[in-house]
Write a structure and sequence with these properties.
Blueprint lengths: L1 H24 L3 H7 L3 H28 L4 H10 L3 H19 L3
């Protein structure tokens, strides 16, 4: 039951992580000439990086609380290893929740 309650914040955390990656990617070489050439694009990408990172941490905390875990601990762990720990954690969560759904009751 708890896993079903945590599906929505986990999905939101995944979306915010994708937005963060896209905003970071706008500063990488193929797109950097467009991004750095426009103050508006640089500002929007920077705001996108900040907002998506903060929302990602909030959604990780909400998911941890719904799973009966310590939200502060999971937010600190996520923050210390961001973004690699977040990616690994989301993949493992989905993998184990799918296994739990497929196992006979």
């Amino acid at each position: 039951m708890q896993v079903a309650r945590a599906q929505q914040p986990i999905a939101a955390a995944a979306v915010t992580l994708v937005v963060w990656v896209l905003c970071i990617a706008s500063f990488l070489p193929p797109l950097s000439k467009y991004t750095t050439g426009s103050v508006l694009l640089m500002t929007l990408a920077g705001i996108g990086i900040a907002v998506s990172a903060i929302l990602h941490l909030i959604f990780v905390g909400v998911a941890a609380k719904r799973l009966g875990r310590s939200p502060a601990l999971w937010v600190v762990i996520t923050l210390c290893g961001f973004p690699i720990v977040s990616i690994i954690g989301l993949i493992l969560f989905e993998w184990f929740s799918d296994e739990k759904n497929q196992s006979p009751a």
